[in-house]
């Protein structure tokens, strides 16, 4: 009532703050509710799950997990494959993206401007549009069911390059490189022993992002990996989806979902401050 | 004299710039450029699997394109993709703007900001395949959501979320919203925090309300970032695949109403329908290429 008057000048600060908290709590609920149901259901037995939803967790989480490990889906192999691909992708992609960024940042050569422009231009081209040629190439190289075509292409990662280049501009003084040269350090040695350590914070952020996007990637691996022994977790989830899984043990289905997202969630919760800061820093400044 | 020695040295160093570029370009040419060329090349040939044997490759010129554009499926899938993108993007940009404004408002002094940011960014890192699988189980006919709605007495029998065009599309759009609004919020917030605070102070002194400040100062100054967010989101939206693919098991049901362009492409690729897959890829390449140029112009002008 009093607010009607105040509305002319805008709502009072207390009211605005209250609205903000209510909306934020609702949004937090919207984000977390699904995962709460997931965790609760992953702890319930097959029988309990058929009896409808209860918000209280049960005690069968480890039974479900052990059923999952001993079931028909090769989840542990899937985990191993996912870890190998994502880890190598993250390492190669960040190492060589730093190298590419360093080439543009620290040296002057003919065509440098063109190279930089070119990389920025291809930055947003999605990999899906070249998938057909990519599959044919992989078939031609006899690299189907092999991890190489999923790892090596990450060496040319324009987005990672751009982020690292931005970071270099404010954090890697050229005078330092000059000093290293005067001390007789070779260019490759300078890159490995001086530039890389200085870039650690940015490299770490990009490693996490590259790891996560490789871990979550479904489109390309599904086109390349056909044998059960090389499938990654997202492909196994898709297999589970295409099985007539409502007849399946639902406890195992929930356990499988938890199993696929848990590693990333745990890492995120430990490093969240760092990761969220990394997103903000990567954003283009107005 | 000293100078020329320096120059010579510089030239000697600078060849290392080119050497350091080799890995990027070798890999780019092999795994992106050659596949792109093969894709374009294949789009001009009739080449598909029929039963156990292959038809073609026979050169058909623009035949695949004509077939693709005339049989109407492409239009439906393009429309589906756009509808689901817009349904996710509109709430995403509104919520992100509001949250960004609140987080950056010094007079509001919101607490627990780090907690809120952590939570809203979390869905972005969740494997889309797992997220879609989760929603499929939660919203299945006998799943927890129907259970909850029934025990609340809101519905008397299970609602078939997956068999209804708009509920299926809403689920896809909602998942996209959840996965991306945190990211957008953080980008917009970074932009808002970059605005000169003296502008806000001056406006406050002049008696502007928070709403006026938002619409008259924040929004116009954010325009470049908003364009960037919108175009990158559109490019991402055109690539929509994992969520509807897993949610509908690749069928795009009900009645192909959630079938996206990339799901269509994926289908051709799996059926080894190379000619059509090629033509579709080239069309997608052109669309995303045009959009990329807009992003590029923005990023390049930002470089200065």
Fold topology:
The complex is a heterodimer of chains A (286) and B (304).
Chain A (H helix, E strand, L loop, with lengths): L1 H6 L5 H30 L3 H5 L10 H9 L5 H32 L5 H11 L8 H10 L7 H4 L6 H14 L2 H9 L4 H12 L1 H17 L2 H6 L8 H10 L7 H33 L4
Helix pairs in contact in A: 2-15, 4-15, 5-9, 5-12, 9-12, 12-15, 14-15
Chain B lengths: L1 H41 L2 E6 L2 E7 L3 H8 L2 H32 L8 H13 L2 H11 L5 H8 L13 H29 L3 H9 L4 H29 L3 H6 L13 H10 L3 H30 L1
Antiparallel strand pairs in B: 1-2
Please tell me about this protein's structure.
The complex is a heterodimer of chains A (286) and B (304). Chain A is mostly helical and 286 residues long. Chain A is built from 15 helices and no strands. Chain A has 2 domains: 2-60, no CATH class; 73-242, MetI-like fold (Orthogonal Bundle), CATH 1.10.3720. Chain B has 2 domains: 1-33; 72-303, MetI-like fold, CATH 1.10.3720.10. Chain B is 74% helix and 4% strand. In chain B, helix 7 crosses helix 9 (210-238), helix 9 packs antiparallel against helix 12 (274-303) and helix 11 (261-270) packs across helix 12 (274-303). The longest helix of chain B is centred in the N-terminal third of the chain and has 41 residues, at 2-42.
A few lines on this structure:
The complex is a heterodimer of chains A (286) and B (304). Helix content of chain A is 73%, strand content 0%.
Helicity level of chain B: over 70%
**What's the β-strand tally of chain B?**
2
Strand order of the largest sheet of chain B: 1-2
| Terminal CA distance of chain A | 40 Å
Mean pLDDT of chain A: 88
Oligomer: heterodimer
> From the 3D coordinates, which CATH architecture of the largest domain in chain B would you assign?
Orthogonal Bundle
The total domain count of chain A is 2
- CATH class descriptor of the largest domain in chain A: Mainly Alpha
């Amino acid at each position: 009532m009093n607010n009607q008057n105040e509305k002319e000048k805008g709502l009072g600060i207390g009211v605005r703050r209250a609205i903000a908290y209510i909306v934020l709590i609702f949004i937090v609920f919207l984000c977390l509710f699904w995962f709460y149901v997931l965790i609760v259901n992953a702890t319930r037995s097959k029988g309990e799950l058929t009896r409808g939803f209860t918000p209280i967790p049960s005690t069968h989480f480890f039974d479900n997990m052990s059923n999952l490990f001993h079931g028909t889906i090769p989840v542990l192999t899937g985990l191993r494959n996912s870890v190998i691909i994502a880890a190598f992708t993250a390492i190669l992609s960040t190492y060589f993206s730093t190298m590419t960024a360093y080439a543009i940042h620290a040296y002057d050569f003919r065509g440098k401007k063109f190279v930089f422009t070119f990389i920025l231009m291809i930055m947003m081209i999605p990999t899906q549009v070249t998938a057909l040629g990519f599959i044919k190439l992989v078939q031609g190289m006899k690299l189907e069911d092999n991890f190489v075509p999923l790892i090596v292409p990450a060496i040319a990662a324009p987005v990672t390059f751009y982020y690292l280049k931005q970071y270099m501009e404010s954090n890697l003084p050229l005078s330092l490189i000059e000093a290293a040269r005067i001390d007789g350090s070779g260019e490759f040695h300078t890159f490995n022993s001086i530039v890389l350590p200085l870039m650690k914070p940015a490299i770490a952020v990009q490693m996490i992002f590259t790891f996560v996007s490789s871990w979550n990637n479904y489109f390309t691996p599904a086109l390349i990996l056909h044998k059960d022994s090389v499938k990654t977790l997202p492909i196994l989830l898709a297999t589970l989806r295409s099985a007539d899984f409502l007849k399946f043990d639902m406890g195992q289905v929930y356990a499988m979902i938890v199993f696929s997202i848990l590693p990333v969630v745990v890492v995120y919760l430990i490093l969240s401050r760092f990761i969220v800061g990394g997103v903000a820093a990567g954003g283009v400044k107005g | 004299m000293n100078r020329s020695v320096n120059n010579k040295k510089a030239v000697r160093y600078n060849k290392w710039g080119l050497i350091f570029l080799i890995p990027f370009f070798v890999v780019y040419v092999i795994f992106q450029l050659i596949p792109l060329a093969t894709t374009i090349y294949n789009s001009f040939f009739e080449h598909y699997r029929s039963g156990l044997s292959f038809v073609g490759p026979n050169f058909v010129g623009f035949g695949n394109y004509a077939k693709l554009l005339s049989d109407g499926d492409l239009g439906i899938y393009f429309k589906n993709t756009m509808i689901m993108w817009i349904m996710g993007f509109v709430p995403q940009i509104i919520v992100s703007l509001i949250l960004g404004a609140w987080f950056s408002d010094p007079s509001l002094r919101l607490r627990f900001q780090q907690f809120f940011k952590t939570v809203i960014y979390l869905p972005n890192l969740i494997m889309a395949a797992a997220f879609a699988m989760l929603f499929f189980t939660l919203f299945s006919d006998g799943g927890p959501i129907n259970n909850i709605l029934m025990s609340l007495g809101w519905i008397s029998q299970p609602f078939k979320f997956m068999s209804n065009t708009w509920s299926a599309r809403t689920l896809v759009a909602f998942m996209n919203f959840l996965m991306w609004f945190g990211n957008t919020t953080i980008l917009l917030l970074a932009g808002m925090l970059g605005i000169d605070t003296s502008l806000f102070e001056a406006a406050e002194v002049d008696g502007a309300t928070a709403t006026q400040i938002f619409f008259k100062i924040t929004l116009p100054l954010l325009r470049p970032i908003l364009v960037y967010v919108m175009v990158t989101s559109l490019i991402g939206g055109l690539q929509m695949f994992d969520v509807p693919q897993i949610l509908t098991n690749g069928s795009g049901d009900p009645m192909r109403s959630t079938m996206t362009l990339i799901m269509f492409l994926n289908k051709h690729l799996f059926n080894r329908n190379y000619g059509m897959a090629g033509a579709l890829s080239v069309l997608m390449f052109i669309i995303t290429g045009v959009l990329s140029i807009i992003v590029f112009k923005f990023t390049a002008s930002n470089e200065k």
